[in-house]
Design brief:
The chain has 268 residues and is α/β, with parallel strands linked by helices. The chain is built from eight helices and nine strands. The chain has one domain: TIM Barrel.
Length: 268
């Protein structure tokens, strides 16, 4: 099974909505698009569409396309990176901010307007299964400490404490935001699940690791907390019995030709 990973669908800051529609039409012609529940035992040549982070533009641009084409999807969200409101917005300007600035506004200024509200998630429930992306979008185990190079900046600097932030320069390899304490890691994963279930009245049994960082110990922790499936950023195709789900990331700079070739390559 092919599992696709999107972050944003936006005319400027993500996969263009027109291109996204073309991608979905291609998948519908060539593969079987399965729901989150069907993905537990997928047929051959099937695909599952997923989104990470919970940006508002998923509601404004992607959701109408998926609904029109009757394509189910999954979205992984971090409760503390959501707009704490039942508001259902209709204006596109809420999404007119770069990913870097959206995280900056959220982590530093407590401004989550670029992200989905609880009301919007409820509205999307007919198409989307809502699952966990951790509580605060902090990585929950230590990793290699490699800096993220998107837009020439290290996005992880925004989840450092104010005191830690004064000691580092943008682009420096950072590990201090990685939650190394086991109890704190468990809190990140357990509270995310609990809050989503309470606010939406649904069952959460899957997790997408923030920043794609994880290890064997975190997998054990996730299973203990009730997560049945853990979605990664590792590229590849999936066998139905696997707990670790591999995904193919689709970025705004990828052509339709690239998408078609990769989708068929990873779909058996």
């Amino acid at each position: 099974m092919l599992v696709l990973l999107y972050h944003r669908v936006h005319p400027k800051f993500g996969v263009h909505p027109e291109l996204f529609r073309e991608q979905m039409l291609f998948l519908k012609r060539r593969l079987r698009l399965v729901s989150f529940k069907e993905a537990e035992n997928p047929p051959p040549f099937s695909a599952l569409v997923t989104f990470d982070d919970g940006f508002y533009d998923v509601f404004h641009y992607a959701y109408p396309i998926l609904k029109e084409l009757s394509i189910p999807a999954v979205i992984f969200v971090s409760p503390e990176r959501l707009l704490n409101s039942q508001l259902v917005r209709t204006a596109p300007h809420y999404s007119n901010v770069s990913t870097y600035e959206a995280f900056k506004n959220s982590f530093l200024n407590k401004d989550n307007s670029a992200f989905l509200s609880w009301g919007e998630l409820k509205e999307m429930g007919d198409i989307f299964s809502i699952q966990s992306h951790g509580l605060t979008h902090r990585a929950t185990v230590g990793g290699g400490g490699k800096p993220f190079k998107g837009e020439g900046k290290d996005w992880r600097i925004f989840s450092l404490s104010e005191e830690e932030r004064k000691k580092v320069k943008v682009g420096t390899p950072l590990t201090s935001i990685l939650v190394k304490d086991k109890r704190e890691a468990e809190r990140e994963l357990s509270l995310s699940k609990e809050i989503i279930e309470k606010n939406l009245g649904i069952k959460v049994n899957s997790l997408a690791f923030p920043w794609g960082i994880y290890n064997g110990e975190l997998l054990k922790t996730a299973k203990k907390l009730g997560y049945r499936y853990c979605f990664t950023t590792v590229r590849g195709w999936n066998r139905r019995a696997s707990c670790e789900i591999k995904r193919l990331a689709v970025g705004e700079k990828k052509s339709l030709r690239w998408f078609k070739i990769r989708s068929l390559l990873y779909s058996p």
